[in-house]
């Protein structure tokens, strides 16, 4: 019997499915939202850094930066967070006149599929975390260099972008108890790793 008869054709559909899943995860599904998620906040930082070179009018620079920060706050809170990572937060007033903060995360479907891609998630969180840190650095720089007139603009950047950061972190991790438990677990893991490393060094 010919040895060729013992050879079977193996289906590669599973491999094709894995490749398609990876491409979907890495694909940016909302390019316009991803662009504007970074455009307003990066533009505000660029204008702040270059405004003294472009114009001598402090009022024009301040108004431009505040408008960019306001547009960024609205776009991130109402559009890009919902489209890119499936998160949203807002404030609502009940019938008794009490104000409530609502933090929501999109539920995963029964098949376990998510509408957001990994590429969009990275872009979203990178922009959401990095830019407030930059504004905090600007705040300390303005404070220590005695640029009092710029301090109000920088504080506005910290407050607006910090509010979105806090809101989406609450959406991601849940309530404060979950946030505290995550921090406790992280510190516990770090302490355990250091203890194991010290024991290994002692044993060696």
From TrEMBL:
Membrane-protein topology: Multi-pass membrane protein
Subcellular location: Membrane
Protein name: Golgi apparatus membrane protein TVP23 homolog
GO cellular component: Golgi membrane
Transmembrane parts of this sequence: 31-50, 56-76, 123-144, 150-169
Pfam family, one: DUF846
Entry annotated with the keyword GTP-binding: no
GO biological process terms on file: protein secretion; vesicle-mediated transport
Keyword Transmembrane helix: yes
Assigned keywords, A-Z: Membrane, Transmembrane, Transmembrane helix
Family: Belongs to the TVP23 family.
């Amino acid at each position: 019997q010919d040895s060729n008869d013992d050879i079977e054709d193996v289906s590669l559909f599973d491999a094709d499915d894995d490749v398609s899943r990876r491409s979907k995860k890495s694909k940016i599904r909302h390019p316009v939202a991803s662009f504007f998620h970074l455009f307003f906040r990066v533009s505000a930082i660029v204008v702040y850094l270059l405004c003294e070179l472009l114009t001598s009018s402090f009022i024009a620079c301040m108004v431009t930066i505040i408008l960019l920060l306001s547009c960024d706050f609205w776009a991130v809170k109402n559009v890009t967070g919902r489209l890119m990572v499936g998160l949203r937060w807002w404030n609502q007033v009940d019938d008794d006149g009490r104000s409530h903060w609502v933090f929501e995360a999109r539920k995963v479907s029964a098949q376990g599929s998510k509408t957001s891609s990994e590429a969009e998630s990275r872009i979203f969180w990178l922009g959401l975390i990095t830019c407030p840190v930059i504004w905090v650095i600007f705040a300390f720089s303005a404070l220590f260099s005695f640029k009092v007139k710029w301090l109000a603009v920088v504080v506005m950047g910290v407050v607006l972008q910090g509010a979105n950061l806090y809101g989406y972190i609450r959406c991601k991790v849940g309530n404060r108890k979950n946030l505290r438990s995550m921090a406790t677990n992280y510190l516990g893991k770090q302490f355990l790793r250091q203890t194991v490393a010290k024991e290994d060094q002692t044993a060696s």
